[in-house]
Structure formats: C-alpha cells, structure tokens
Specification:
The chain is an all-alpha fold and 257 residues long. Helices cover 79% and strands 0% of the residues. The longest helix has 26 residues.
C-alpha cells in the first residue's frame, strides 16, 4: 500500500474513533492529536487541524442526540454563551502563549471532573433535596453564575487544546443538574461543538491549517458521531459513567506521561 494512502487511512480511522468517543463522552482529541504528532505534524498545526476536523463530527453527534435536547433550550442558550466566550479566549491563548503555559493545570481539572462524575449520583440527590423541582421550568434549571463561570473556563481549555473537555463538562453539569446522564450528555455535545466551532473560526483566520488532514478527520468524525449517538443512547447511566471514568483516567495518564 502506498505510504500516502496508508497515512490517509490512518487519519480517517482515528477521526472515526474520535468522533464516536466525543459523542459518547469526550476526549477524542487524545486519539487524533497524538496520532498526528506520530505522523510528523508540528504540534500547533496538528492541534488546529485536528480541531477543525472534529467540528463536523460534533455537529453529527448533536443531531444524533437531538431527542435528548428537548426542553433544554434555555439551558443551552445560557451555557452556550459561556462556552462560546471561553472557546474564543482559549483559541487566542493558543496562538499567543507558550505551548506549556496552560497545560500545567489540565491534569488537575480532569482529576476534579472525574471525582465529580464518580460521586454524581450522591451529589445529585443532595442537590435535589436542597432544590426540589416544583415546576418543569425549575426541573430544567439553566445553571447559575458559578456554573457559567466554570463552563467558561472549560471553554477556555477546550479552545486551547480540548482533550477531555467533554469529561469536564459532564462532571460540572452532573453535579449542577438532576437530569439523566443522557440529557446532560446531549447538552455537553452542544457546548463542546460551540467551543470547537468558534476556535475553528479563529484558526482559519489566523493560522495555517492542513486541510487534507482536517478533511480526513472530518469525514471519519461525521460517521463516528452517528455511531457514538447510537451507542451512547443505549447505554444505561451506570455504564456511561464507567466509560466516562475510564476515558477520563486515560486522558489524565496521557497528560501526566
């Protein structure tokens, strides 16, 4: 097999895997980014090309989870603005700061998110006792200023690098909301998509992109988004939580290595 064809197949395959896992939980970047580095792409070029390539897969995943988004319009709008602003800041930071400046705090953020995911059922019960839903509007809470600030910070991280952004969002919203993990996962896909989308706009305007690699990742990620939506919607809450913890732990190990 010609080397260029093999290279293209590898990039498509990791895009497919990343699109699948991003839709279910997040951290697909931990598959595509190291692969692109191994293929010889410079780090920043690999990061921005990977980001742009994964955007269509996120859109595909959002479409696959559209039923779970019902009744969450106010929540998506409120948190979506925080994600957009955070993603814009993070993308700009990637282009102006040294590569290791932001990365030092990432393992801490992921560790906190994993603890949140593990203890989410107990914390959700505690929140429900303190704030019992009396109306549908109350039940579908949009999130207060603290959550918005934390979603903004996760957006900054997502715009800068993005690996395990989904784990952070699931952990934050799992504590804040009493909805099912599937409904929270649907919102997570929207927020991650907004972050990746605004970052992609910045990268297209301000830096060089390998459009061939981005296109191959996008093609795989679109298919993976549908695969992930089918798999994720069928998982019981405990299985989705176990998957989140496993992927998040793998992300933490890779970032600390």
């Amino acid at each position: 097999m010609p080397p260029d064809l093999l290279r293209a197949l590898v990039i498509f395959a990791v895009g497919l895997a990343a699109g699948t896992i991003n839709t279910v939980v997040g951290s697909g970047t931990l598959i595509t980014f190291p692969t692109m580095l191994a293929l010889g792409y410079p780090p920043v070029l690999a990061n921005v090309s990977n980001n742009i390539g994964l955007v269509p897969g996120t859109v595909s995943g959002v479409h696959g989870y559209r039923a779970e988004l019902a009744g969450q319009r106010r929540r998506v709008l409120r948190l979506g603005m925080a994600s957009l602003c955070g993603g814009l800041v993070g993308a700009i930071l990637l282009l102006v700061l040294p590569a290791g400046a932001f990365q030092a705090i990432v393992p801490v953020l992921i560790g906190i998110a994993l603890v949140m995911v593990i203890f989410q059922p107990r914390l959700a019960k505690w929140v429900a006792r303190r704030h019992p839903p009396t109306t549908q509007e109350t039940a579908v809470h949009a999130g207060g200023p603290v959550l918005c600030a934390l979603v903004f910070l996760s957006g900054v991280y997502g715009g800068y690098f993005g690996a395990a952004q989904g784990v952070l969002l699931l952990g934050l919203m799992g504590v804040a909301f009493t909805d099912s993990m599937q409904r929270i996962n649907a919102v997570k896909n929207v927020l991650a998509g907004l972050v990746n989308g605004i970052a992609a706009v910045v990268f297209v305007i301000a830096t060089h992109i390998d459009w061939g690699a981005a296109g191959l990742i996008a093609a795989g990620a679109i298919l993976g988004g549908q695969v992930g939506a089918r798999i994720g919607r069928k998982l019981p809450p405990w299985a989705l939580r176990v998957l989140i913890v496993c992927v998040g732990t793998a992300a933490l190990v890779k970032l600390l290595a």
